[in-house]
Amino acid sequence: MENNYRGNFRYVSDMINIFKNQSMNEQINIREINEKIEKESAFIDLVNLEMKKVIVGQKHLLDSLLIGLLSSGHVLLEGLPGLAKTLAIRTLADTVDAGFSRIQFTPDLLPADLIGTMVYSQKEETFHVKKGPVFTNFVLADEINRSPAKVQSALLEAMQERQVTIGRETFPLEEPFLVLATQNPIEQEGTYPLPEAQVDRFMLKIKIDYPEKEEERQIIRENLQKKFPSANAVIKPEDILRACDVVKEVYMDEKIERYILDIVFSTRYPEQYALEKYKPLINYGGSPRASINLAMAAKAFAFIRRRGYVIPEDIRAVCYDVMRHRIGLTYEAEAENITTEDVITAVLDTVEVP
Question: Count of alpha carbons within 13 Å of 202, Cβ hemisphere only?
Answer without folding.
Answer: 29
